Amino acid sequence: RDAADLGCNCVILSGNLDLSVEAPQDSLETIQRKIALAHDHGLRVGIYLRADYFVPEAGSDEERKLEKFCQRDQRGLVPTWDYECHYKKKLCFHHPEVLEHFKDRLAHVVGELGADFVHIDGYDFGGLEAHDACRCDRCKQDFRDWLVRKYGDQPGRAIERFGHNRLDGVEPPTTYPVV
Distance between CA 93 and CA 51 in Å, rounded? Predict the structure, then answer.
């Protein structure tokens, strides 16, 4: 009511769905009640969603299957949202299963919870090339396919750039110090 009295026409609520759609921090009934209350006061409601990570330990059996589609860093480890949130694992959006999961989350928020719009945060999939770029098998293959498109018909340029023209084994660039 206070937001409407101040002249606001919408609010963005945390759907608390970043851990799991199946196990949000607030019950689904609580979230739906907040949405209904805002609607009763003439406010449109947006739900905040993160796109780039998930928390397998909180997820349903179906959500836990996503773990095999996590990003991989230069050392082959699964990157996390930050060093204090090791349980928030970054997803790789080059996998159709991850895209389907995100579409399901959007459908849930709009269709089942009744949100009017979605505030999507966390487009940190892939990161900055060389530093954070995903290096899962699919992303490495995408990189190599790009090299073939760029240098495949120009073996001289490939040799100049890489010292050879075998592009099917080139690793994405790295910035980690050699240990």
Answer: 9
Closest CA to 70 of 89, 94, 46: 89
pLDDT tens profile 1-23: 777 778 888 888 876 555 555 65
What is the reported pLDDT for 179? 45
Taking the C-alpha atoms of residue 170 and residue 3, their distance in angstroms, rounded to an integer, is 55
**Please, is 80 exposed, middle or buried when counting C-beta atoms within 10 Å of its C-beta (0-12, 13-18, 19+)?**
middle
Parallel, antiparallel, or unpaired for β 53-54 and 89-90?
A: antiparallel
**pLDDT single digits (tens) 83-132:** 788 888 888 988 999 989 888 888 888 888 899 999 888 765 555 555 66
The predicted model scores a pTM of: 0.77
- Three-state DSSP state, 48: strand
Answer yes or no: are the C-beta atoms of 85 and 19 closer than 8 Å.
Answer: no
Alpha carbons within 13 A on the beta-carbon side of 86? 1
